[in-house]
Amino acid sequence: MEILATDSDLVEATFRPNSGTQEVAIPPNSVSWQQSLKLAFRSNQALLAYLGLPAELKLESHGKTAAELDFPVLVPREYAARMIKGDPHDPLLAQVLAGKIELSEASCGMRDPVGDQQAELIPGLLQKYARRALLITSGACAVHCRYCFRRHYPYSSAPTGIQGWQPALDHIRQDRSIDEVILSGGDPLTVTDNVLRQLIDQLNQIDHIRRIRIHTRVPVVIPSRVCDSLLDWVSSSKVAIYFVLHFNHFREIDSSIEIALSRLRQAGATLLNQSVLLRGVNDSFEALRDLFLRLIDLHVLPYYLHQLDQVEGALHFQVSDARAMELIDCLRADLPGFAVPKLVREIAGESSKTPIVR
Ligand SMILES: *Cc1c(COP(=O)(O)O)cnc(C)c1O
Ligand code: SF4
Question: Whose CA is nearest to atom 6 of ligand 2?
C-alpha cells in the first residue's frame, strides 16, 4: 500500500518526531483535507508521543519499528484527537498502532486472503459477484488500519486517473449485466473531487448503470473531506449514490462526524456502514450496541459486520465465530432489527459474502 503524500519534503517539514516540541492536536478548520494528510502522524513514535504514552519500541531503521517498515503507520491528527490521552488500550489507537505481533508467527496468514487477484477482469477492475464491478479507484488511504485485508494488495499496478480508467470504463460499457459500480481501493476519496466528478459523470452516461457505491473510510478519519466540492458531484449524480462508510467504534463518532454525515445525506446519498469485528477494539456487546445505536440515530444503516479476513500480519485481531454469533444474538435481543448488521465473512470463489449463522 502506498502512502498518499508524495511530497516527502513537505512531510518532513511539517512533522519532526525528534524535535521535542509539543505537536498541534488538530489542524485548524481552514486546513484542507490534502493538508490534513500531509500533517498526519507517520510513525508509532510520533503518535505515542502525542498521546503521552511511553515509546516501548524496538526501532529498526529511520526511527521505525519492523512492523511499520512492513506497512507504514498513517494516522490523521483529526482521528488521533478522538483517542484518550494516556490510554494504551484505546480502541481507536489499537486499530492503527503498529505492533511487533504483526510480524510474529501467530499472525501468519495469506497475502491475498479474499482472492482479489483471481477476480481481476482487467487491471484495477474486479468482479466477484453478479451485477457489481469494483474499480480500484486509488491505491492510497487516509489511514492505515493494521487489520486491513488489502495491506498486501499490489495497488501500484492499478491504473489511476480518468485516462487510466478508460479500459475499465470500456469494459463496464460493454457488459450490460453490470448495473452497479463500486468505487473502492485503497480509498476512492483520496482522489480529488475534480477527477471524481468526471468519473461520476462518465458512469452516469452509461445507461445500464443504476447505482454507484463508494466504499470509504476517509470521512471517518478526516470528516472535513465531506467538503462543498464533494457534495457537488454527489448531488449532481442522477444514478443513486450509496456511501458504505467504515466505523468500528462509537468513539469514532463526534460532532464533526455528525456534520459530515448530515451533509452527505442532504446531498442525496444513502448511508450504510460496514465494520470489522476486532479483538481488543469492538468485541463486546456494549461497544457494538453503542456503535450501531449512534449510527442509526445519524441515519446510517449498519450493513455488514465482517469477520476478519485471514491476512498476514492481522490474525491477532481475530474473534472466534462462536463469540461473534453470541454477540449478534445479544444485539438482536436488544436493538431494532435494522440496527443489527449481517455477520459475514468473505470466502474466495463464493458468489456472495458468506453469512455466519448457527
Ligand atoms: C464485497 C464486494 C462487493 C460488494 O458485495 P455486497 O455484498 O454487494 O456488498 C463487490 N465486489 C467485490 C469484489 C467485493 O469484494
Ligand atoms: S481498511 Fe480501508 S481505510 Fe483502512 S487501510 Fe484498509 S483499505 Fe485503507
Answer: 148
Contact in structure between 303 and 340 (CB atoms under 8 Å): no
On whether the pTM is more than 0.85, the answer is yes
pLDDT tens for each residue of 205-231: 999 999 999 999 999 999 999 999 999
Q: Whose CA is nearest to atom 1 of ligand 2?
A: 148
Tell me the pLDDT tens digit for each residue of 127-148: 999 999 999 999 999 999 999 9
Angle in degrees, 0-180, between the axes of helices 255-266 and 228-236, rounded to the nearest 10: 30
Return the bridge partners of 135, or none. Answer: 125, 183
Q: Which three cell numbers, joined as nine digits, stand for 356?
A: 455466519
* CA atoms of 246 and 272, how far apart (whole Å): 9
- How many Å lie between the centroid of ligand 2 and the Cα of residue 144? 6
Ligand lying closest to the C-alpha of residue 317: 2
Is residue 7 classed as helix, strand or coil in its secondary structure?
coil
